[in-house]
Amino acid sequence: MTNRLDRDFTLTGLLRFALPTIVMMLVTSLYTIVDGILISRLVGANALAAANVAYPAISVTLAMGIMLGTGGSAVVAHKMGAGRMEEARRDFGFLALTAVCIGLCICLLGALGAERLARLLGASDLLLADTATYLRVQLCFAPMAMLQLLFESFFVTAGRPGLGLCLAVAAGVTNGVLDALYMGPLQMGILGAAVATVTGYCIPAVVGVLFFLLRRQGLRFGRPNGDVRMLGQACFNGSSEMVTNLSAAVTTFLFNAIMMEYLGEAGVSAITIVLYAQFLLIALYLGFSMGVAPVFSFNRGAERYDRMRRVFGYCVRFILLSSLGILLLALALSGTIVGVFSPAGTPVYAIALDGFRRFSPAFLFAGVNIFASALFTALGDGRTSAVISFARTFGFLMLGLLLLPRLLEVTGVWLAVPLAELLSCLLSLVLLRRRRADFGF
Predict the structure, then answer these.
(1) Which pTM does this prediction carry?
(2) What is the dihedral of CA 420, 394, 373, 156, to 10 degrees?
């Protein structure tokens, strides 16, 4: 059986290989955003704010799943490239078992402490009930979310990105249909949004388990080997992605607190809209970086540095051109994007539209940062990857959030992310140049 990673890619071939993962990330982003749109339209702006208040806790689950998926797939793909397939299978089995165990611990927390956690996240009396309900349902299905995120990376490593795409589309369509049903005719409120989302998690999780259990050739579940050292390496490799999501939890909490102070619940709803839009527009970079990462990991394991240099050049061209295109798209369609969430003429719409236009320059630099971090993860340099992610999503961003609002008030909140992306882009370029010889670029 020929491994799809073991070939010489052209630019067109590389884009074709990464396309299912790109579309998968876009679909995943869309069905997350559909929640926001329908919550806002069918339940109200306060319910949308409650979902965003709950997000920091949910993002911890995302952080763990993405860490195991991206970091673990780099380890497994490297061993596949070196011809150690049976060892790669056993590592994969252990990573999946670890993901389920972590998910069960998070599930217990959600079942027993949703209300207390909602208070800790800053839910006001007005938002408390909806925040606790959303948290409880989401966290109780954490094992399914963990497996979905793990399999998103490993479908690519197994050479089946198309299957990951199909499952992401199925999950997204299911989520959207159930959102409309539960929050519309059945009048379930934010509970309906949470139930629809976790139902979407279950589709790729269940199908992924069956696929990797029943598969005869290539990457499949092996008997878990209990290799704690490998698990540590996978977690270290994926630490940048974990840092990104944990930082998102902290910064979302800070965004909410600052906007609540300046503009109340309407401000929290507006920042939620902008962050949803950001999640959609950077999905291209996330999907492309995730899609090409196993190519770098495999060829490093096979010591094909000539292939790595060529693929790196293709990636740079794609990232630079797409960054400019996304910035222009965001500026041109800002009114349309915000209007999907909140009707024109409302206070939330006015706040979000002004903020999104000030926020948009961030898209010019985000692609470089996301790709650089994913590249270092794929090459086994988790430390450098984590430095970039930490600087981008926490260090520089916290600096902006703590300083700019003091000088510019609400305008400073909107400019904090573009500033963080710019400074992180400069850091990424320095690190790529410094480490290029180490990986044969």
Answers:
(1) 0.69
(2) -120
